[in-house]
## 1
Amino acid sequence: MTSKPTVAILGPGGIGGLLAALLSRAGHRVVCLAREGTAEVLRRDGIQVRSGQFGDFGAAVEADTELREPVDVCLITVKHTTLDAALTRVPPAVLGDALVVPLLNGVEHPASLRTRYVPELVAPATIRVESTRVQGGDGEGVVIEHGSPFTEVDLAGAATVRPRLDALASALTGAGVTARVVDDETAALWAKMAFLAPFALLTTRYGVPIGEVRTRCRAELEALVAETAEVARACGAPADPAGSLARYDLFPAAAKSSMQRDAEAGRALELDAIGGALLRAAERHAVAVPVAARLVKELGGAGA
């Protein structure tokens, strides 16, 4: 991988659009893969970013409905609810030996992706950011609102692709993202899950931002953090419930989870990928998670 890798981004939404714009601004060739209406707007108008951390700027990107040539890396930034359909835009034969880097919520997707692409080239990543696409597609420009004062990415993968992961981390860092390569994929995925699940389930269930959750629902938040930490440990990952609570307290009070935003917009929820996966892992390891189970059921995921 060169110092300026060519990057395909499947799903130029809040996360994918932000990373696409940052990488393009840093001089990388970026190809966004999306449905035709969005691809047309991207080719014509590029991406506009509004960010306290990075400033307000526009970035030109290439765009298509599917990948038609090899690239160095493909970032997968769609929602779980649209993953299967979206993957048809990235034919394995065209992808070649590119890194496949999913930045998806949950913990179960790497195994699924490894049945479609070269297993050792699938390098899961986690991202900590609040970023939303507020306009986009079918005649409207693509506008990304980046609300968090941080954008942090952890990359994990097979030892054989470590130099390529280091190069990708360097590219992301050069674009302004705090990026690092970590050794333990399970630990990375569960560190994100242990933070995300309480955040997503509680903000969505009660329809309030994190500031109200951490005050009005403090006992429930603490119980849910403890449950997810216990499941993470059972899955072989370290857990830091006190650290998670401290991070919630540092979050901007108005921050909302992506699941909450989906609920507000009437979109399908990633409930199975987050809450369902948590319950399945808890069942496998015989960990009691009564608060999580109740919230998933109340959100419509009974039997998830």
## 2
Amino acid sequence: MSDSSAVRGSRDDRPGDERKRTSIPTFYRQVVAELRKVVYPTQEQLVTYFFVVMVFVIVMMAIVSALDLGFGKLAFAIFAG
């Protein structure tokens, strides 16, 4: 087996390797720079995503409700005698 650095661990595990803190203005500038990279959906995409999510949630609710009803009837059939 080889003694590569990937096997021995990450750089964060070394003693004496301290992380530097970022100042608040630098952090803010970095956040703003990252937010400028975000691609926001159009209104048409947003409406489409909304309906897709709603249909998925309704279908999952129907499946869970059907399973709950079925297992409830099964439990009553078993324990009611």
## 3
Amino acid sequence: MTQRLVSHLRYAALAVPNFEQERDFFVRHWGLTEVESADGLSYLAAEGSDEPFILRLRKDDKRIDLAGFGVRNRADVDALAAKLHADHVQFVHEPQALTGYSGGYGFRVFDGDGRVLEFATGYQQRQARKIREREPIPAKLSHMVFNSANLNDTVRWYVDHLDFTISDSLITPTGEDMMHFMRCNPNHHSIAIARGPHHALHHLSFEMRGIEEWMRGSGKILRSGARMVWGPGRHNAGDNTFAYFLDPAGNTIEYTTELAMVDDDSWVANRHDISHLSTQDQWGTAAEMSELVARESFNDIDKGLFVAPPV
């Protein structure tokens, strides 16, 4: 099994202009728990996760503030920082005590497209609980997907600098790359990079306890008035279920479950043709992927590239 310095995806941090509306949606409808708040800043946890929070919201112009990743210990944080320095990666700040909610020790860098990434260890964890049968709330953050106008260059950045591995890819009928699913642990993907017209958030995905909770959660969100963009269905790459919605800020967010687990020593990456209906949806229950559906996840141009968030 490959030993990587990055252990897992911890949280996503977004800036949104409609902060109060966004926070209300994620707490009242989506099923997250607010664990800390300040003026224009909210930290939201998942009841099934021991991460102190899985989503941070900040009041500002719409952007991805950062993606937070876990590292096993301080030695690995320092080793990863040294590797990225040797690779001439641009740092936001060096390894240090983190002063934000839950603390820890870590550092931040810009990825190849200019998104901010944080790598941390030693932060205060929270007490997770088992999600009850039929309880329609997220258990944890599953994965984060970025749009990139430089698809393969961006993927290469994560492979070369962070030792991520491509699990599967989506391609056009002519063999052109459309999306790469990437892992840093046995989960089929913790991030994915999609080809887009500009750099932006493609979607955030939240893991449910199981199929029953995923379906009940999807119905709950529909009743909230949020629009379902695509679903319900089951992807081929990752073998996970999907139901995509738009949050009040216009970001695509997903309820999913049963994401595949893979073994580094035996897994063979596949290249799935997006023109095959089974690639899009094994069950055939979701509407066929179209240009209109795809456009929803192009999102607005990210205004935060190579600009570190204030917190």
## 4
Amino acid sequence: MWIGIDDTDSRNAGCTTYIAFRIVSTFADRIISLPRLVRLNPNLKYKTRGNGALSIRIGNRTEETKTVIGKSDGKKISLGLQNNEMEPDFPKTYDNSMIEQVVGIVEEYYEKNQTNTNPGIVFSNKKFDTDIYRNALERDIPVDYIEEILKKTDSIYRKIGSGRGIIGAVSSIAWDRNRTTYELLNYKYPRGGYVDDMVKTIIGKIAESYDSTFNNMEMKEGKVCLFPKDRTPVIYGIRGLVFDDLIQIQEEINSRFPDFDRNYMIFATNQGTDDHILRLESGMELRELSSYEITGYVNELPLRKEGGHLFFGIKYGVTDIKAVAFEPSKGFRDELEKLEIGDHVKLFGSYAKGTIKIEKLELIHPSIIYERRSPLCSRCGSRTSNIGSLKYRCIKCGNVMEPEYVKTNYQRMTMKLEPPAYARRHLSMPWKLENASFRSNEYEF
């Protein structure tokens, strides 16, 4: 049976991943694949912090081969590998006792009395179509649309409040896992609590020492990016491409700091995959709330405006598009500020109201910079002086000439730019992973 949950937290507290952790801990002997943390459309106004939805797969395990995926109260959580079957044959009837237990866990831990917290819980004996996942990355899906799908598939679902969470719950189950990364989350309920800065740095450096991890630290600033604000049960989260490396990192942390050896779990995720990015082909129209890869030419110089946000313009085909890098991206804006008219660029980001919110940028081919100079008189060879309107007059004979343009020695290189790790979106693929090999076999874990 598939279990999907979403929209249980608020902007200031709670965490849906922790509820998934509690469900997995409760049914540890029946978990048959890694729990899934699936990030959806980052542009929706009613999202909480990262727009992440969770799903879990439960079945009757018969295989002896098991792999440890975490610990709950110091006891190992393991799952049985399902390498020999693509989609297990789940029973057509539902386990009502299990359903009530899951609902009870959600009701215990979700953020109550929050207007924008509207949990949805979904139970399905079959995986949902991948198109639902794609739609959930690219647009705003109505609750009614998902409810119709649930009714047609004889799925069971529970709504709290408006129940908007059923959208993410179904979309998480529908994730195709064409690109998979992993995240190890360490918990302390109800809040992660204070962690000394020196301890944070040591843990960050342990994670950073593995080539397969990403978004651990911002080395230029020495800032550790694994520890969220102390408002949820998450102490830290370590992201990587290799499952076994995350297990090894946690063991290294445990050897130094045994207090972190009690509650943690690894999730399969779509984080850092650019799954939300659509390649903008010729003739395509930009759609509100979708995210794109766009190649064009800078046609308006970068300018900082009130609040520190940096704006510039690009020409895509015959279309003029504004681009913005927001203040929290810090030094990223300093690099973008060096762009020149005519630079050939590829940028990635979400589109809304005529503006691309930049997640990263590649300078494919810098424009050639020319310097305007006063020409020597073509008649007598004397100096000329600027008389305005791009005209120059010979001081000696009065001959009027156009300015001279000379290629400068200023050489600019192609480059790939991105915000610091702490300012990146969950889904955005860091340049470090550009040529990475992502796991694609959903049933390997």
